[in-house]
Write a structure and sequence with these properties.
The complex is a heterodimer of chains A (about 220) and B (about 240).
Chain A: H1 4-11, H2 17-27, H3 40-45, H4 50-74, H5 83-105, H6 107-113, H7 115-118, H8 124-134, H9 139-169, E1 171-172, E2 175-176, H10 180-184, H11 196-213
Antiparallel strand pairs in A: 1-2
Helix pairs in contact in A: 2-9, 4-5, 4-8, 4-9, 5-6, 5-8, 8-9, 9-11
Chain B: H1 4-48, H2 61-71, E1 72-77, E2 83-84, E3 101-108, E4 111-122, E5 127-134, E6 141-148, H3 162-165, E7 184-185, E8 200-201, H4 208-241
Parallel strand pairs in B: 7-8
Antiparallel strand pairs in B: 1-2, 1-3, 3-4, 4-5, 5-6
Helix pairs in contact in B: 1-2
The chains are: A mainly alpha (about 220), B alpha+beta (about 240).
Chain lengths: ~220, ~240
Amino acid sequence: MADKAEVQVKREKLFSKKNLKNITEPLSNNNPITFQVLGICSALAVTVQIRTALVMSLAVISVLCLSNLTISMLRKRIPSKIRIIVELAVVATLVILVDQILKAFLYNISKQLSVFVGLIITNCIILGRAEAYALQNKPWPSLLDGLGNGLGYGWILMVIATGREILGSGTFLGYSIIPESLYNAGYENMGLMVLAPGAFILLGLLVWLQRTLNKTISE
Amino acid sequence: MHSTAYTFRFAIYVTLVCSVLLAAAATVLKPRQVENQLLEMKKNILVSVDIRPQEGESFTRELIQAKYDQYIKGLVINENGEILPDRDPGTLDPKKEPGLFGIYERIEDGDIKAYVFPVSGKGLWSTIYGYLALAPDMNTVVGITFYQHGETPGLGGEIEKDWFTSNFVGKKIRNDQGEIVSINVVKGKVDPNSPEAYHQVDGISGSTLTGRGVTNFLKSELKKYEPFMQAHLQIKKGEING
């Protein structure tokens, strides 16, 4: 099975600088959400509460790693004419698996995520990484690329969800954190934050922050 | 470049592998998923009659099952309010038999403490499902739960939270003449001095339409069970008069 190119990889260090970059780049400069602007729809939809955002992130990370890995392993065999359809079939299979497992073992959370787990199939990050990276690269770097992009997606989701849950519902992971006295003094939860525009505003602020901190990103 | 024959072969292999994988996963996980749905239902029935885990305990699968077996008895009734013996609400498919309803009794020491009626209807975005528990006078609300809905989390989605559902406890669904007026979700706070306050609960700010949906379907659902409620009320009255 393994051709010469595969053997070469074994000699290269598993965590060489180049491979590690696959993980670190998408966390900051090349973040799938704030820089590549992929996967926005789900970033808006599931970030009302931290818990759903966390499970969604884990689901995306696992699907992304496995799809990158599978497609990279098949990359020499996939006929280029039907490659997109094959990628979709692989991704769809993985997503349905995740959905079924959530329904069986994390029923409450799967109820809250409802349709959004199924919609991971349409998450641009997954097909984007399969097309742009896994099809040209070996399995191990592809797996790392999937992990990096999944984590990059995940931490942005967590930041937005934390902001939205605290400002919108006054809770953190479901526990009230805003003291009663503040409510008595006239403080109110910001209703806007539980709606999609709240996510847009927070996301916009994040993109702004990233571009201010990192001058190398060209306009 | 791959040949057309290869492309077809590849496509067939991929399809086969994917379908076998999914079929296997679905078959293996199905029983647990069905059980989850049933347990979720049972949990909500229990919560609607205020049977909850003790402080510091959580509702495990075993605890739900044990409490359900201990306190709840399921009945199947028809449109005329007659009980169909030998039927179990768990096996009832409302799509196939729209005229039959599964209801539940909370039993303690041989006495019926409450009746639990399934209620469902349109909210703003989705169909809301829940259970309404009434005391044996068929008037006082013992509790209500909403367990399945697609309302906006944080707004209409708050209907499933305790702070909203606990407002229903102790409210009356009938007026002095015994007619069903149901419970209305008002906009804003209930005026405690209003004579209607017995039939009203506080609304959720930002979710007037979800509240209106709840108001509407509660009334129509209660009317559905009215024959059953009347039949069981009359028995009570008869006992008192006799």
